[in-house]
User: Which sequence fits this backbone?
């Protein structure tokens, strides 16, 4: 009999337990410091659980993940395998297309239903679930010795670390404690906030009330363009967010951590949805047609009213000045405000508000075939606690489920 501990009851931990439990000789204990299973799973996809994406080129994984080592993982358990796995659990799904993405959601559109299905499959005699248990010490001496805050001491033959990242993290607990990196001599890549809003003190967004607008944004690192995205941007006091911002935020966070200059340019007239139009050509045609309009009235149908007052201050003109009365410098400045407004980025949101965590345990520490530590036999590491992160759209959940499944499958058959 294998006595297995899984630390963490998130996506990777739960699927790992389900797979490992298919060997009835395995005795599995799940310990989680939270009071409920799958706490983060409940809020994924705005509560609808976007668990994978069909826009998935395994030969070009750099588009989706920071580490192409995941190709080996997805060659053995990919998005199609996960959809079929969910079906076998009883969870049907549907595809929702937006832009280049093909999001996959459960048919019921509820993360809660996915979690309840997992709970049902975890309800086995060889799985013991302990919630509200915080582990304060762990070490290896022929067996794994684990101590919890309430002073319970356990012994296990195998341990799976599935603690996840630091997103939603509000404690003052040291980061290496969360990852057990000091206790188990694991190499920890500095954790950073990922898939999160970007912070700026630029005049344009300082003091404004939240609003959304369809824009194209480009991320610059040291004045070199790194990535461009289009979609709905949320503007809030000192922060930019929304899916396009999330898709560039991980690049921005790593660059900021290296003290590089980070900025975002905004095209408020993004014409990418209409390939027959160019933003500048479209804007110039409007300027010609509406030359008798005041600048205020001209902008009223283009950008949020809060920005209009900001633009007028930047242009240093009177509210009643008409488009045709702008001099060439003012006109060019107005065009740039609308098509190429550049904001300096100062930082990201904290872990508390981030969707994922960048960094984590260095993947060079594990054997990617079964996720076992190269340093400590029978220690496994899966999911978001590893230094692997993906873009927004179900890619991070896919890796969590894939790694948990493959680890659990190994424990089932080993």
Assistant:
């Amino acid at each position: 009999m294998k006595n297995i501990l899984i630390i963490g009851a998130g996506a990777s931990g739960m699927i790992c337990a389900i797979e490992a439990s298919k060997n009835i000789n395995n005795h599995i204990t799940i310990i989680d410091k939270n009071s409920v299973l799958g706490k983060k799973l409940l809020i994924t996809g705005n509560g609808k659980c976007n668990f994978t994406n069909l826009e998935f080129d395994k030969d070009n994984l750099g588009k989706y993940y920071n580490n192409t080592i995941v190709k080996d993982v997805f060659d053995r358990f990919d998005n199609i395998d996960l959809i079929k796995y969910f079906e076998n659990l009883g969870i049907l799904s549907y595809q929702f297309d937006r832009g280049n993405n093909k999001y996959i959601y459960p048919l019921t559109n509820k993360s809660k239903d996915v979690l309840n299905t997992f709970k049902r499959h975890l309800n086995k005699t060889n799985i013991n679930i302990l919630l509200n248990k915080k582990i304060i010490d762990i070490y290896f001496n022929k067996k794994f010795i684990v101590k919890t805050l309430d002073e319970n001491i356990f012994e296990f033959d195998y341990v799976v670390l599935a603690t996840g990242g630091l997103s939603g993290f509000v404690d003052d607990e040291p980061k290496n404690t969360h990852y057990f990196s000091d206790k188990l001599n694991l190499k920890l890549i500095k954790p950073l906030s990922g898939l999160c809003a970007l912070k700026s003190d630029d005049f344009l967004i300082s003091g404004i009330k939240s609003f959304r607008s369809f824009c194209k944004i480009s991320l610059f690192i040291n004045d070199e363009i790194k990535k461009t995205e289009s979609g709905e941007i949320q503007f809030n006091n000192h922060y930019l967010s929304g899916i396009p911002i999330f898709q560039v935020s991980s690049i921005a966070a790593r660059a900021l951590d290296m003290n590089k200059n980070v900025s975002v340019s905004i095209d408020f007239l993004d014409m990418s949805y209409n390939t027959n139009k160019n933003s500048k050509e479209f804007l110039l045609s409007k300027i010609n047609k509406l030359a008798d309009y005041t600048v205020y009235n001209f902008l009223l149908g283009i950008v949020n009213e809060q920005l209009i007052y900001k633009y007028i201050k930047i242009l240093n003109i009177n509210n009643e000045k008409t488009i045709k009365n702008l001099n060439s410098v003012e006109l060019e400045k107005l065009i740039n405000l609308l098509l190429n407004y550049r904001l300096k980025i100062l930082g990201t949101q904290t872990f508390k508000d981030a969707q994922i965590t960048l960094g984590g345990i260095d993947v060079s520490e594990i054997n990617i075939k079964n996720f076992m530590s190269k340093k400590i036999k029978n220690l496994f590491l899966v999911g978001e606690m590893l230094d692997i992160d993906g873009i927004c759209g179900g890619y991070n959940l896919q890796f969590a489920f894939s790694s948990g499944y493959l680890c659990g499958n190994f424990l089932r058959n080993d």
Remarks:
- The chain has two domains: 2-193+356-413, 198-348.
- DSSP finds twelve helices and 22 strands in the chain.
